[in-house]
Write a structure and sequence with these properties.
By secondary structure, this protein is α/β, with parallel strands linked by helices. 32% of the residues lie in helices and 16% in strands. It is built from ten helices and eight strands. It has an eight-stranded mixed sheet with strand order 2-1-3-4-6-5-7-8, with helices on both faces. The radius of gyration is 19 Å and the shape is globular. The termini are far apart. Bound molecules: thiamine diphosphate (TPP), iron/sulfur cluster and magnesium ion (MG). Magnesium ion binds next to helix 3.
């Protein structure tokens, strides 16, 4: 199927296949929003290679909203599974068992737990081999499917089911964008479902390239982040406006920011809508923690030209 590549306004985007498809996902799931938008650009000639997580629920036949194929792997192994699928397709084409037009895109789809943690070794090996694949990580900043335990992508001070102390999670979110970029793949980008045009352009850019490509979608999660599902898009927009989720891409050794918020509202506008950060505001403000979070965001943007 030929995909429309001329996204100029929100009206140009095709309606999403996934939302309202009867999938057993939480209302207001920001990961589902992003993946719906991504799938609209990728199209049905896509084989998803998925490691366990919330989006695994999308594979259940006959309720799956996808028209392509799906391979489920162990949490650590999705990029290795993608290698097998890519090789199989290449062999079938070489032997003329399938025509070129029946070739499919091989897309790894995992959460942040797998992408930042136990899947990182097989990811590194796939990049080293120059595997022709797209890796999509929906980042809900925790092990969502098993009850939002912290992952290496959990932000500093967020409460999770395994970070219940008065300061929340003591670690700092891993910079997976930079880890990928340091491996010099073909393409790396951050996206979010609440910025659909920026997202669509980046999926198109990734599609136009070959080799290892990575998209990381911040995925507001009403269940794990503890907020009203109706706030998902607002929270996503605030993540970009406050500067805590920079929209950027890496290509040919250079990082470019695709949206530079001119006047950044304080990060607490984003934090205070989420129950996982409520302890920073009540019963009294944790000025030290709030200042540190703001200072880190400011320091990041100070380095951006
Ligand atoms: C090796 C292994 N350990 C633990 C699990 C249990 N498990 C299933 S889904 C999941 C959470 C995965 O987190 P993430 O990758 O962030 O995806 P999310 O659940 O947030 O969508 C875990 C720990 C598993 N399937 N395999
Ligand atoms: S737990 Fe979060 S990421 Fe998982 S389906 Fe629910 S809203 Fe989506
Ligand atoms: Mg997760």
């Amino acid at each position: 199927m030929t995909q429309d590549t001329s996204f100029r306004s929100i009206k140009d985007l095709p309606s999403t296949h996934l939302l309202g498809s009867g999938t057993p996902m939480c209302a207001g799931c920001g990961g589902l929003l992003a993946i719906g938008e991504i799938y609209n650009v990728l199209g049905p000639k896509t084989i998803f290679v998925n490691a366990a997580g919330c989006m695994t629920m999308l594979s259940v036949y006959p309720f799956t909203p996808f028209r392509g194929s799906w391979l489920y792997t162990a949490m650590a192994s999705a990029p290795a599974g993608a290698q097998g699928v890519r090789d199989a397709l290449d062999i079938l084409r070489e032997k003329e068992r399938i025509p070129d037009e029946e070739d499919m895109r091989v897309v790894v789809l995992t959460g942040d737990g797998s992408a930042n943690g136990m899947g990182l070794s097989s990811t590194s090996a796939a990049i080293d081999r120059g595997l022709d694949f797209l890796y999509i990580c929906y980042d809900n900043e925790g092990y969502g499917n098993t009850g939002q335990q912290f992952s290496a992508a959990t932000p500093h001070t967020a409460r999770t089911s395994t970070s219940t102390g008065s300061l929340g999670y003591l670690g700092y979110k891993k910079d997976l964008f930079s880890i990928w970029a340091a491996n010099r793949p073909s393409y790396v980008a951050t996206v979010i479902g609440s910025e659909p045009l920026d997202l669509a352009r980046k999926i198109e850019a990734a599609n136009a390239l070959s080799g290892p490509r990575f998209i990381i979608a911040l995925s507001p999660c009403p269940t794990g982040w503890d907020y009203d599902p109706a706030e998902s898009v607002n929270i996503g927009r605030l993540a970009v406006k406050t500067g805590i989720w920079p929209l950027k891409e890496y290509r040919d050794g250079r990082v470019t920011h695709t949206k530079k918020p001119r006047k950044r509202p304080p990060v607490e506008e984003y934090l205070k809508l989420q129950g996982r950060f409520a302890h920073l505001f009540r019963p009294e403000r944790n000025e030290v923690a709030l200042c540190e979070i703001q200072a880190r965001v400011d320091a990041y943007w100070d380095t951006v030209e």
